[in-house]
């Protein structure tokens, strides 16, 4: 078995703000069939410490970036965890990055430098009987692991940094550099220096042996100025080391034939049972029944997710005979825009502001189509859940959405391979056109059923992607493992 230490600032089911947690939570099991043993290093937030089964104390630190700390072995839901118990950094109310008021903690640089520094210490042999060959760091919060390893003593450990979303880069002022425990030589263009400050993701991308991101199309997009968010030059220079590997989903947690969150379970060959979920969903959102399709949204309500485009297209959607249910939380003005649409279209538009895992399953199992008008989308998971649940994805043509949905153009419908609807450019009028096409497809129930069934047959599991990660690790180790 190849030992890989995954380093992640969130992990499902312990703590989650987005897709990163799903990936960090699903990869270990997926990789175990491919000769990889993955342990995951995570911060000891309250939500994590409250839920794990505690194992041995593995190490002590007198001073982990400002306070005493220890590493404890932990287990939960089949995950093999190393948890950093450091109350001065992680024992706080709120989410992993911000307090209950939603404002980022001002010392996030310290909290996540500590996470990455500990990963590098483990790579250097801190723990008896555990020496990972690979450190696989996720996003800016963990990316500095690669910098700590690169600027530390010579090591055979190989590093991988995965970009889940280039929009979050962990940029801080130069004044923190002196407290990062890095040698002065790291504050250069080939290290962690970024436009005069310190870039955590930038440092990781510069120093890691291999880079990955979560879809082939996003891997291409981020090398362009339009999507590169200032890092496109670096990523172009590292083209040979950058791999696009699609996310899968946990097909046990997301299985419509056994899903306890549904009003009624169903299968591709018994789609009529889906109707009971639609009825339950209409009730939850106080919506009328009707002829047209019910569109669903499960999303962070942000500009990235195109929620402003959606708010602008709601009137069209209703005029076409569609209904809409939205589950999400996010930016206040976008939430207000959706609530205003709900007011305008009582019984046709329903909005639930909040985070509700169970209800997200019911949306996928009961809505006719899942709407994802993102301006950019590294991979996206909701379209994958939609495919698996016969909830036809209507998506912007970008990133992982482009890679996982086959547009129902005439040729694809005739060939019986279509699984959803894509639109481009990513604008309000193009979204309205896509809604129109979807409504038309829906009214041809034979074609619609075929779209649903074809989607339900798509492979959205981790199998193929886990095998690609395992190949990547073996390639880095020279094929000797
Ligand atoms: P991102 O990570 O950019 O937010 P993804 O599509 O990759 O987008 O992953 C989002 C994940 O969060 C999915 O598992 C989705 O179902 C879930 N999710 C988002 N908003 C909510 C919500 N309000 N309630 C329940 N689940 C949600």
Any overview of this molecule?
This protein has 481 residues and is α/β, with parallel strands linked by helices. It contains 19 helices and 18 strands. The strands form 3 sheets. A 9-stranded mixed β-sheet has the order 3-4-5-2-1-6-7-11-12, with helices on both faces. Strands 15-14-13-16-17-18 form a 6-stranded parallel β-sheet, sandwiched between helices. A 3-stranded antiparallel β-sheet has the order 8-10-9. Strand 1, helix 1 and strand 2 form a beta-alpha-beta unit. Helix 4 packs across helix 5, helix 10 crosses helix 13 and helix 11 runs parallel beside helix 12. The mean pLDDT is 96. The site of adenosine-5'-diphosphate has 18 residues, from helix 1, strand 13, strand 14 and helix 13. The site of adenosine-5'-diphosphate (ADP) has 18 residues, from helix 1, strand 13, strand 14 and helix 13.
């Amino acid at each position: 078995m190849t030992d890989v230490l995954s380093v992640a600032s969130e992990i499902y089911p312990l703590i989650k703000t987005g897709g990163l947690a799903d990936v960090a939570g699903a990869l270990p099991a997926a990789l175990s069939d491919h000769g990889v043993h993955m342990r995951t290093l995570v911060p000891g937030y309250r939500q994590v410490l409250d839920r794990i089964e505690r194992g041995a104390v593995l190490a002590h630190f007198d001073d982990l970036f400002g306070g005493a700390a220890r590493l404890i072995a932990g287990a939960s839901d089949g995950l093999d965890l190393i948890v950093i118990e450091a109350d001065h950094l992680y024992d706080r109310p709120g989410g992993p990055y911000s307090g209950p008021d939603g404002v980022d903690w001002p010392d996030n640089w310290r909290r996540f430098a500590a996470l990455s520094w500990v990963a590098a210490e483990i790579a250097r042999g801190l723990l008896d009987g555990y020496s990972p060959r690979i450190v696989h760091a996720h996003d800016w919060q963990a990316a500095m692991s690669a910098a700590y390893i690169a600027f530390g003593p010579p090591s055979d450990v190989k590093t991988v940094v995965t970009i889940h979303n280039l929009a979050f880069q962990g940029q801080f002022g130069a004044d923190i550099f002196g407290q990062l425990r890095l040698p002065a030589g790291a504050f250069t263009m080939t290290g962690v220096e970024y436009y005069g400050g310190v870039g955590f993701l930038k440092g990781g991308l510069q120093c890691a042996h291999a880079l990955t991101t979560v879809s082939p199309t996003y891997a291409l997009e981020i090398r362009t100025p339009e999507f590169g968010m200032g890092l496109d030059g670096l990523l172009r220079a590292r083209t040979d080391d950058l791999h696009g590997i699609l996310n899968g989903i946990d097909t046990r947690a997301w299985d419509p034939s056994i899903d306890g969150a549904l009003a009624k379970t169903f299968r591709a060959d018994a789609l009529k049972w889906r109707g009971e979920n639609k009825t339950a969903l209409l009730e939850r959102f106080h919506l009328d029944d009707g002829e047209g399709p019910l569109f669903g949204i499960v999303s962070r309500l942000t500009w990235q997710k195109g929620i402003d485009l959606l708010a602008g297209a709601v009137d069209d959607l209703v005029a076409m005979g569609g209904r809409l249910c939205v589950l999400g939380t996010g930016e206040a003005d976008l939430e207000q825009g959706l609530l205003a649409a709900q007011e305008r279209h009582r019984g046709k538009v329903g909005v639930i502001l909040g985070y509700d895992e169970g209800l997200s399953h019911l949306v996928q199992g009961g809505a006719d189509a899942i709407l994802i008008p993102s301006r950019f989308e590294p991979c996206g998971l909701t379209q994958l859940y939609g495919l698996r649940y016969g909830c036809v994805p209507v998506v912007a043509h970008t990133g992982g959405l482009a890679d996982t949905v086959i547009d129902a153009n005439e040729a694809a419908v005739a060939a019986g391979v279509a699984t959803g609807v894509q639109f481009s450019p990513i604008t309000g009028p193009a979204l309205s056109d896509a809604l129109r096409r979807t409504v038309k497809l829906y009214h041809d129930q034979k074609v619609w059923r075929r779209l649903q069934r074809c989607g339900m047959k798509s492979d959205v599991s981790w199998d193929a992607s886990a095998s690609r990660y395992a190949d990547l690790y073996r390639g880095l180790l020279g094929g000797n493992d």
